[in-house]
Structure formats: structure tokens, C-alpha cells
Specification:
By secondary structure, this protein is α/β, with parallel strands linked by helices. It has 15 helices and twelve strands. The protein has helices spanning 29-32, 48-52, 55-59, 79-91, 106-118, 132-138, 176-193, 195-203, 205-209, 213-233, 249-258, 265-282, 289-300, 313-321, 355-364; strands at 19-22, 41-47, 66-69, 98-104, 125-129, 143-146, 155-158, 163-167, 332-333, 336-338, 341-342, 351-352. It has a six-stranded parallel sheet. The protein has a two-stranded antiparallel ribbon with strand order 6-7. The protein has a two-stranded antiparallel sheet with strand order 9-12. Helix 5 (106-118) links the parallel strand 4 and strand 5. Helix 7 runs antiparallel to helix 8. The chain is globular, with a radius of gyration of 21 Å. The N and C termini lie far apart (58 Å). It binds nicotinamide-adenine-dinucleotide (NAD) and zinc ion.
Length: 367
């Protein structure tokens, strides 16, 4: 059919946002707001734990302009929470000059980013991530959204923040399990893009576990650099480069599903990376010794390196086939050709593997 006419929309401005990384900078959050949004009315979205640990008070917003997600956590990441926040904003007379401030982990960041993208057709959001997952991953790159009643992140948008402020001091109050789990994403960044970062993590494992300020700042900077570089080159997942961030995630997502999310995301990714390294080695893509090397680093960080009891490798393979990132039922993996380098073939970063080999790799990471 021939189009009667076409409408050409001018491309939007280049979206560029600053990141501030430091310690004890939460109370200076307003300074991170770009000049053009300084006069906007702030509205804080956070959760109960951030309030109880005293972080929310440091932002200095009016309690009447605050929404506290309670109870916190993944169960709140749904459209009902989004609707509740949107209604509060509207009811209180917030307008297009609203500045959303998202203070919390990935759950808060994803919900608040989505709210910002929808309220009055889009208002700016300042992301203030407070978990290892959020500081290394979820706050960077503009993915926002919530879960449907059926699947994770089913409803969402790309909505870049106007700025990101990372105060590593906030990580001090995070419980040990969440703290450690999020470190898996840092190691993932090193493994896919930066051998020196892997070495840094290896050398400073204990100091990282002790949450020493300078180590936390260094991690944040390196994570931002790596994830930032990938999303700058593929902001809307169009050229496929962004898929490299899924290293370890094919098996990892299946573990999360198989354990109904009792295994945390980072924990699942830790085990999933080992599975992908084993599979890559079996396919003669990945050097064989990378499995053992990575396992040693993961153990040092106190991350799990084997599947939880009772998970059947064939069931995991089936869950992978049904994953949304599989194409026509073909499971796709990111492989490493060496430490710090992703395997690329025919300009593609995602590769298929046969079912038997996938099951074998899952056996290699069985308890
Ligand atoms: N948008 C993206 O690109 C992206 C990337 C990765 C993950 N995610 C999403 O991120 C979510 C997971 O994020 P998460 O691991 O940060 O979980 P989370 O936000 O649920 O936080 C984990 C727990 O820690 C608490 N908490 C947060 N900061 C704290 C602090 N400083 N001190 C004490 N307690 C604190 C929270 O209240 C919560 O109970 C998932 O929904 C995932 O889908 C999104
Ligand atoms: Zn991840």
C-alpha cells in the first residue's frame, strides 16, 4: 500500500546525563539536578527501608511530597503501585514541572522511572541508587518498568534519568546477602569488557567485602564506565550490543524462575556465568581455565557457584527455551573468547547452543 503522506519528526535532543559518585553526598542531591530542572517541584519515591535507615530524610524533600513503597521489594513492582503513585501526584496537583527523585534499589528505580515516563507524558527523574545492583546496573541505561501478573519487566519504557547520584555510603546499611549478590554484576562487567577490572576485584576482594569507601567508589566508577559505554552505543537495544550485558543471564534467569526468585538475581547470575563459561569451553570458544578462575573469584566474594539443591538440568534448559530473550525457541548465549572479551561471530553477540550441551553445562554447575 502506498502511504498518503509521511510525517517527519525531528530527532530529539541528544540525551546526556551526568553521574555523580561519592561518599556522604546524599544531602547534596539537589545540586545534581541539571540547571534546566532546578525550579521543578521535587517528588520523592522511595521505600520503607530507605526511610528506616535514615537515607530518605537526607534528601530534604517535604514529607507531603513523598511516596514510600511499603512493603519494599519485588512484589511491589507492579502497575498497582504505579497507579497509586500517579494518583497521588495528580491529586496533590503536581504538574509538568515535577522532578521525580528515585531513592532506592532497582525496584524503586524501575517503578519511579516508569512513573516519570508516564506522568503528564513525561517528567524528569533523578536516580539515586542505593544497592549494589542499582549502582552497578539498573540506574544506568534508562530501562524502566514493572512486572505484569505473568512475567518480569513485561510493562515498561526507556526513560533516561536527568542525572544519577551514587552515594556509596548508602551501601553500608544494605544487608549482606543483597550487598554480595549485586557484586556479581561488577564481575560480569569485568569479564565482558575489562580484564583489569577483574584483576581489581580479585586483588581487593576482602576490602570490597568490608565495603571500604575507596573500593566502593572505584567499583561504581568502573561499572558506570562499562555499562555507560555499552548503552551509549546501543541505547534502545537496536544493534544487539546491549545483549552482551546478558552474559550469565540466560541460565541465570532460568535459575530465578526455577527457584521462584528465592535465589537473588545476582546469585543466579553468578552461577549462570559459570554455566556459560562451561558451555563456551565445550564449544571451543572459551578458554577452559576461565571456569576455575571465575569460580575462585566468586567463592572469594562469597557468591554461590552451584545450583541450589533439586534443580533438574533438563528443566532449566526448558525454562531457557521459554525465556523472552530466546528467539523462536532458540536459546541464546553470550560467550567469552577471553577474559574481558565477548565472542563475536558474523557481527552477532548472541549465539545458540544445542540442547544436550546446555544440559551438560547445567550438570557441571550442579551441587
Ligand atoms: N532497569 C534495569 O536496567 C535493571 C537492571 C538490573 C535489575 N533491574 C531490576 O532491579 C530490581 C532488583 O534491584 P535490587 O536488587 O536493588 O532490589 P531492591 O530494590 O528490591 O532492594 C533490595 C532490598 O534492599 C533494600 N534496600 C535498598 N537500598 C538499601 C540500603 N541502602 N540500605 C538498606 N536496605 C536497602 C530494599 O528496601 C529491598 O528490601 C529487579 O526488579 C530487577 O528487575 C533493573
Ligand atoms: Zn543482571
Amino acid at each position: 500500500m502506498e502511504a498518503s503522506m509521511t510525517i517527519t519528526c525531528p530527532t530529539t535532543d541528544v540525551e546526556r546525563y551526568p553521574m555523580y559518585i561519592g561518599t556522604g553526598i546524599l544531602s547534596r542531591a539537589q545540586e545534581a539536578v541539571p540547571e534546566s530542572y532546578r525550579g521543578f517541584r521535587p517528588f520523592l519515591i522511595t521505600d520503607r527501608n530507605l526511610v528506616d535507615h535514615g537515607h530518605a530524610a537526607k534528601i530534604g524533600t517535604d514529607p507531603a511530597s513523598t511516596f514510600v513503597i511499603d512493603p519494599p521489594g519485588e512484589d511491589a513492582k507492579n502497575v498497582r503501585t504505579v497507579t497509586a503513585i500517579l494518583n497521588v501526584l495528580d491529586e496533590k496537583g503536581f504538574g509538568r514541572d515535577t522532578l521525580i527523585i528515585a531513592l532506592g534499589g532497582g525496584t524503586v528505580g524501575d517503578i519511579a522511572g516508569f512513573v516519570a515516563s508516564a506522568f503528564k507524558r513525561g517528567v524528569p527523574v533523578l536516580q539515586i541508587p542505593t544497592t549494589t545492583v542499582a549502582q552497578s546496573d539498573s540506574s544506568i541505561g534508562g530501562k524502566a518498568g514493572v512486572n505484569s501478573d505473568w512475567s518480569k519487566n513485561a510493562i515498561g519504557t526507556f526513560w533516561n534519568p536527568c542525572a544519577i547520584l551514587m552515594d556509596v555510603e548508602t551501601l553500608k546499611t544494605l544487608d549482606e546477602r543483597h550487598y554480595v549478590a549485586g557484586l556479581a554484576e561488577s564481575l560480569k562487567h569485568g569479564l565482558i569488557a575489562d580484564p583489569a577490572f577483574v584483576e581489581y576485584i580479585e586483588t581487593h576482594t576482602d576490602a570490597i567485602k568490608r565495603r571500604e569507601d575507596d573500593k566502593l567508589i572505584e567499583l561504581a566508577k568502573r561499572n558506570c564506565h562499562i555499562k555507560g559505554t555499552v548503552v551509549e552505543r546501543d541505547p534502545y537495544e537496536r544493534i544487539g550490543l546491549r545483549f552482551i550485558l546478558n552474559f550469565g543471564h540466560t541460565i541465570g534467569h532460568a535459575i530465578e524462575t526455577a527457584t521462584t526468585f528465592r535465589t537473588l538475581h545476582g546469585e543466579s547470575i553468578a552461577i549462570g556465568m559459570l554455566g556459560a563459561l562451561h558451555l563456551g569451553a565445550a564449544m571451543n570458544i572459551t578458554p577452559v581455565d576461565l571456569f576455575g578462575h571465575t569460580e575462585t573469584i566468586l567463592r572469594g566474594l562469597a557468591l554461590p557457584v552451584r545450583l541450589p539443591e533439586g534443580i533438574d538440568p533438563a528443566r532449566l534448559a526448558e525454562l531457557m527455551r521459554r525465556d523472552k530473550k530466546a528467539k523462536e525457541g532458540r536459546v541464546r548465549f553470550v560467550f567469552l573468547s577471553e577474559i574481558g572479551r565477548v565472542y563475536v561471530k558474523n557481527s552477532d553477540f548472541a549465539h545458540t547452543a544445542n540442547r544436550e550441551m546446555i544440559i551438560d553445562a547445567c550438570r557441571a554447575i550442579q551441587a
